[in-house]
Amino acid sequence: MSDSMQQLRAQCEECQNCPLGATRTNLVFGVGDPAAKVLFVGEGPGEQEDLQGEPFVGKSGQLLDRYLELIDRPRDGGGIYIANIVKCRPPHNRDPKPEESEQCLPWLRAQVRVLRPQIIVCLGRIAAQRLIDPDFRVTREHGVFREKGGILFMGTFHPAALLRNSAQKKDALADFQALRDKMEALGL
Ligand code: SF4
Fold first, then answer.
1. What is the pLDDT of residues 99-123, one digit of tens each?
2. Which of 13, 36, 44, 169 is such that its CA lies 20 to 30 A from the CA of 30?
């Protein structure tokens, strides 16, 4: 992790800016290559993530890892970084409340300032609606790249949704293949 990402993480460890800070076991700041040019963003930590302090480590994380390995971009050494909209687990795996996301977004924005990613992939509706378009519909708009503020954004299915509906796995794989092609085209 770069010095500035380390410093940011240390500051974030102290955060109690919303009620989720009081109930977390561990902060789930993010993981990956500090020089990554591709940033994946989910909605928030679940139970396993809260226990281990790392994003996407439960069953849905294993599925995400499979897709990343299929496009030769593993979380270790694949030039990617993985984070969430909120850094602390919402109780009982509920969705983050809008005010919790609002309080936590400055941390993600700070991560973006450090990484300066060229591509941000939103995993699931909540991240896509926060970062791409409040009306974003994953089933309709997944896999589409759109430029905002010099960054290419793409939304795809949340791995947990794919575990519930495996019929969408083919579409998700196509999105990851499109991501691989885009990374290659950009020399990433
Ligand atoms: S969720 Fe974000 S804003 Fe809320 S306490 Fe955790 S780090 Fe702070």
1. 999 999 999 999 999 999 999 999 9
2. 169
Tell me the residue ranges of DSSP E strands in the chain. 31-32, 38-42, 80-84, 119-123, 145-148, 151-156
Residue 50 alpha carbon to ligand 1 centre in Å: 13
* CATH class in words for 3-185: alpha beta
Residue to probe by mutation, ligand 1, list 8, 14, 20, 23, most atoms within 8 Å of CB: 20
Q: Is 109 helix (H, G, I), strand (E, B) or coil?
A: helix
The span from the CA of 79 to the CA of 39, in Å, is 9
- What's the mean per-residue pLDDT of the chain? 96
Query: Which among 45, 58, 39, 53 is positioned nearest to 9, based on CA atoms?
Result: 53
